[in-house]
Amino acid sequence: MRIETGLNGGEFLGLQNVAMRVERDMARVMKMIKRISFAGVLALALAAVAAPPAAWDKKAPENKADLLQIQQQVAKVLVKVRAATVAVRAGGGSGSGVIITADGLVLTAGHVSGTPGRKFEVILADGRKFEGQALGNSVATDSGMIRILKPKDLPVVSYALPSMPETGTWVLAVGNPGGWDDKRGSVFRLGRIISTTRDTLRTDCKLLGGDSGGPLFDLNGTVVGIHSRISSRPDQNYHVAMISFHDDWKPLADGKTIKPIDESKRGYLGLIAADHPAGARVNHVVEDSPAAKAGVVVGDVITHINDKKIFGGESVRHILNQMLPDETVVLTIEREGKSKAVTIKLTKKPASDLPKEEPDAPLGPLNPKKGPEKKNPEPPKKDNP
Q1: In angstroms, rounded to a whole number, what is the distance separating the alpha carbons of residues 35 and 333?
Q2: Using an 8 Å Cβ cutoff, are 56 and 50 in contact?
Q3: Measuring CA to CA, how many Å separate 281 from each of 286, 301, 312, 345?
Q4: Mapped to the 3 state alphabet, what secondary structure does 272-295 carry?
Q5: Please, which residues have CB within 8 angstroms of residue 324's CB and are 6 or more apart in sequence?
């Protein structure tokens, strides 16, 4: 079949030559792009390897320059975190809180927010005052929420996703010790996380009356905890971990009071789990228990329960302690490199209880390899507004 192009032989050959030149030029351009891309990736990789860690990511400051870098980072986030930290007043008492949404959601301690529906005066760093109302609270973890009723141009800060900060992390405690003071403003204390459980962070950021409910920030200005309990000891300062807020977010926002379930009424699974880098390792399974009947075995690593990430044996106990007999749990476990979901129906706890666990060794200062300290030399106090 003959195709008519309307071109004579010379014209057609000329077009062919142009097309071939364009094709060669494009090939050269693509080679150059690949070289540039490879060089760019290589340069970024080398820069990442060569870049020293931030001073606050080291186990300890190594010199004066590290201390100055930490100081500069605190100064960098200071204005923003102070703006979102508030004082809350009700009756003759005062506490603190932090604004996390533009529509006026304030995180605070449960013993500060108190009974759902309670009214507050919320005072911002710039002196503005708003009416607030308590939402929900947890008696078990001391988490609480307040809603600013008529929000306007509110400063906000970000808060941590479900996670657990590492022992030794540098943190910044902000609050209003002694109540709101318009001349002084909120007070900052720099310190480090000493130990953690799923519910609680312990730091050496000294807290005082009036600080309760205030925010604990990492050095990027992200809320990682809320001040809960105070003590006369400098290393006995307790904060509600953000994971506790995430665990109970809906009932807190819906104005519910979350109460701990009596031990005799809790659901029963029948296993003991200990800390593991990927979650919690099953160390013991009770014979004929719900866990045993579902096929859970020693050595399984629990990574999630009902889609909640597990950060150690304490996480397993915390979640199960909030559940009743006949409720269903879904364990996500890792076994021999494979992940699987196991659905288990809890039962009533039998008369013969689980064997007692060996207590974790006390935690030394900034030692992430050991478990959290179990005993407090002095019972910490909560200051009520």
Answers
A1: 45
A2: no
A3: 15, 4, 8, 20
A4: EEEEECCEEEEEEECCCCHHHHCC
A5: 261, 265, 266, 267, 346
Q: Which 3 state secondary structure label does DSSP give 163?
A: coil
Mean pLDDT of 181-193: 90
Nearest residue to 372 via CA among 315, 333, 322, 302 = 315
Residue-wise pLDDT tens digits, 255-301: 999 988 888 889 999 999 999 989 999 999 999 999 999 999 999 99
Q: What letter represents residue 31's amino acid? A: K
Tokens representing residue 299 in the block:
């050595």
- On whether the CB atoms of residues 172 and 151 are closer than 8 A, the answer is no
Q: CB within 8 A of 224, min separation 6: which ones?
A: 159, 160, 165, 169, 171, 201, 216, 217, 218, 241, 242
Which domains does the chain show, CATH number per domain? 51-258 (2.40.10.120), 263-348 (2.30.42.10)
Give the pair of three-digit tokens for residue 87: 């004082």
| Amino acid sitting at position 329 | V
Using a pLDDT cut of 90, give the percent of the chain over it: 56
- Give CA angle at 223 (184, 83), nearest 5°: 35
What would the pLDDT profile of 135-165 be if each residue is shown by its tens digit? 999 998 999 999 999 999 999 999 998 888 8
Q: What CA–CA distance (Å, rounded) separates 24 from 37?
A: 20
Sign of the torsion formed by the C-alpha atoms of 221, 223, 225 and 228: positive
pTM higher than the cut 0.90: no
Nearest-angstrom CA–CA distance, 157 and 223: 7
Stronger pLDDT, 221 or 381, i.e. the higher one: 221
| Strand 271-276 to 279-285 pairing | antiparallel
pLDDT in tens, 72-105: 999 999 999 999 999 999 988 899 999 999 999 9
Q: What type of residue is 274? A: A
Q: Report helix, strand or coil for 95.
A: strand
**Cα–Cα distance between 174 and 82 in angstroms, integer?**
7
Phi, psi values for residue 108, rounded to 5°:
-155, -175
pLDDT digits (tens, 9 = 90+) for 357-375: 443 333 223 233 333 333 4
CA–CA separation, 98 vs 124, rounded Å? 10
